[in-house]
Amino acid sequence: MRVTVVGAGIVGLSSAYRLAEAGHEVTVAAAAPPEASTSAVAGGVLYPPVRRPDERIVRWTATTLEVLREQDAPGVRFRRGRVLLAAGEDDPQWLTAMTDPVRDGDRLEFTTALVDTPVYLAWLLDRVTALGVRVEYRPVTSLAGQGVVVNAAGLGAGRLAGDDSMVPVGGQVVHLTDPGLPGFAVDETGPGVTYVIPHGKHVVCGGTEEPGRGDTEPNPGVTADILRRCRELEPRLAEAKVLRSLVGLRPFRREVRLERVDDVVHCYGHGGAGITLAWGCAADVAALVG
Q1: Which residues form a coiled coil (predicted)?
Q2: How many beta carbons lie within 10 A of that of residue 242, not counting itself?
Q3: Which residues fall within 8 angstroms of residue 144, CB to CB, at 6 or more apart?
Q4: Residue 53 confidence (pLDDT)
Q5: What CA–CA distances, in Å, run from 115 to 13, 33, 73, 75, 188?
Q6: Between helices 274-289 and 10-21, what is the axis angle to 10°?
Q7: Whole-angstrom Cα distance, residue 1 to residue 7?
C-alpha cells in the first residue's frame, strides 16, 4: 500500500519506519528536514511530562524505551537521574514504565533513556531511507487526494486536520558544556519545570512553557533565568560554558489524537513528549494503516 507520512520529526520518522518495515511503499513529506523540527530542540529525557491519567501514555512510553534499548543507536544513553515532585504528590502513572524506580519523600530516582535528539534523528533518517522510504521536503497544504495519509505534522497537524484545539507552547533551552554529569535532574516543585539533561558533550538546560508563543527567537533574559535555576539544581554547572540558546514550539493538545478517519491516520498533539511516545505511537499507527 502507498502511504504518505506528513511530518519529519520523531513521530513522523518513527511511523514511516514501522510502515516501511510492514511492507508499505512510504513517502515522508515535510516542510522542513528533521534537524529543523521541534524534535531537534527537545531536551531528550524519556519520561512523559504529563499528570492526566491515560493508560496509552504508559504503554507508549514503555514501548519507546524497549525500542531504544534494542536499537543501541547513536545519541542514546541510559542513565539514572532524579525528579523532585511537588510536596505530597502521588507517584505519576508512568513511573511503572521506568527501570528500578525508587521514591524517597518527594524525590524519585529511576533509570531512563537520554536522547541527543539531533544525533538520533539523523541516524533514524538514514535508517528510514535505507528501508526505501522516499523523503520530500515540500509544503503540505491538504491531506486530501493523497491516498492513505499519516498526519504527524506536529504543530501543523492541527491546521491540516481543521483542529483548533492545537496550540503552540514555547520552550526555551540553553546548551552548556558537559562537565561530566552522571545523570539527569528535574525539579517540578516550582511554578515551572527546571531540568538538566547531560548528553556527554553538552547539557540541555531548561525550561519554559509559553502557551501561544509564535516565534523561536531566544530571549536573553530567559536564558539568564534558566542558567540561574539550573545551576542551583546542579552546582557542577557553575563554570560550564554557554554554547547556545534555542526555542522550540511544542505541539500541545489536551490529549494526543491517534485515530483513523477514512484514509487519514491522525497522530499529533504530543506536546513536549514526542520523543517519549514516538515508538509506541508508531506501532499504533502501523496497526491502524493495516
Answers
A1: none
A2: 12
A3: none
A4: 65
A5: 15, 18, 10, 6, 20
A6: 30
A7: 19
Global confidence as pTM: 0.95
Q: Are 111 and 99 in contact (CB under 8 A)?
A: yes
Closest C-alpha among 278, 283, 284, 285 to residue 113: 278
**Cis omega (within 30 of 0) for bond into 44:** no
pLDDT tens per residue across span 240-288: 999 999 999 999 999 999 999 999 999 999 999 999 999 999 999 999 9
Contact assessment for residue 24 and residue 1, using Cβ atoms and an 8 Å cutoff? yes
To the nearest whole percent, how much of the chain has pLDDT over 70?
99
Are 41 and 110 spatial neighbours (Cβ–Cβ below 8 Å)?
A: no
Residue 92 DSSP label: P
Given a contact cutoff of 8 angstroms between Cβ atoms, the answer to whether 201 and 168 are in contact is: no
Nearest partner of 286 among 17, 2, 75, judged by Cα: 17
Place of cell 492526566: 52
Nearest residue to 46 via CA among 79, 91, 92, 86: 79
CA distance linking residue 120 with residue 42, whole number of Å? 12
**Contact yes or no for 28/12 (Cβ under 8 A):** yes
| Neighbouring-strand partners of residue 27 | 4, 134
Predicted confidence (pLDDT) at residue 50 exceeds the cutoff of 90:
no
pLDDT at 105: 95
Say if strands 134-137 and 107-115 run parallel, antiparallel, or are unpaired. Answer: unpaired
Q: Which residue is listed with cell 545519541?
A: 75
Count helices and strands in the chain by DSSP H and E runs: 6, 14
